[in-house]
Design goal:
Elements (H helix, E strand, L loop, with lengths): L2 H7 L1 E2 L2 H6 L14 E12 L13 E8 L5 E8 L8 E2 L3 E5 L8 E7 L6 H12 L12 H6 L11 E9 L4 E4 L5 E11 L1
Antiparallel strand pairs: 1-4, 2-5, 2-6, 2-10, 3-4, 3-7, 7-8, 9-10
Length: about 190
């Protein structure tokens, strides 16, 4: 699958690169249980998408972060191409966190507005370098701040803009407001059969 194909599907994860560094689980391990729980976004709204109207539609992507089944930090990149205007409520029914990939039933989710052509392989490398130092201590540690810190201002010519973050998402239902108070999303657990 190319990055373009993966972007159309809503999930862009440079598995080969992340797996080599131990930041993903082998895709085969999520099929062992004949399915897994996931968080599905049923509605989402941003107050400010950090894209001036003169530049056109926003290009939002998210990073889900948690501890993989092997205890190492894992990040999955999720594209959200529909989320292109602030002040508009969207109803995507999109899976954003796949708990079958994670050791704990928690994950953080960070949204960015991309002002350029994101190279997801380069982004994965950057996250690997920054997050390999974090160790599993037997309970979930929020990773959103580490993900935010891993995005240096100089990485892109027209930098991606931090939009909002959600800490310790779990397989629960309801409206969750972002930590930056810039958006909300309605989530619900969803069983994904494999």
């Amino acid at each position: 699958m190319t990055c373009t194909d993966a972007a159309r599907s809503g999930f862009v994860v440079p598995f080969q690169l992340l797996t080599v560094h131990g930041l993903t689980s082998d895709a085969s391990d999520i099929g062992v249980h004949a399915g897994y729980w996931a968080n599905k976004v049923t509605a989402i709204r941003l107050s400010y998408d950090h894209e001036p109207d003169i530049k056109g539609a926003a290009e939002i992507f998210g990073i889900a972060g948690g501890f993989g089944l092997d205890g190492h930090v894992r990040c999955d990149i999720v594209t959200m191409p529909y989320l292109d205007r602030d002040g508009v409520t969207y109803y995507p029914n999109q899976v954003i966190v796949r708990y079958g990939h994670y050791k704990y039933n928690f994950a953080d989710f960070v949204l960015y507005e991309d002002d350029g052509d994101t190279n997801y392989q380069a982004l994965a490398t950057l996250l690997i370098d920054a997050l390999l130092i974090i160790a599993d201590v037997g309970y979930f540690i929020p990773l959103a701040n580490s993900i935010i810190d891993a995005m240096p201002d100089s990485w892109w010519t027209d930098d991606p803009d931090y939009t909002d973050s959600w800490y310790t998402l779990a397989t629960t239902s309801g409206r969750r407001y972002g930590a930056a108070n810039n958006g909300w999303m309605d989530i619900q657990p969803s069983w994904v059969s494999t």
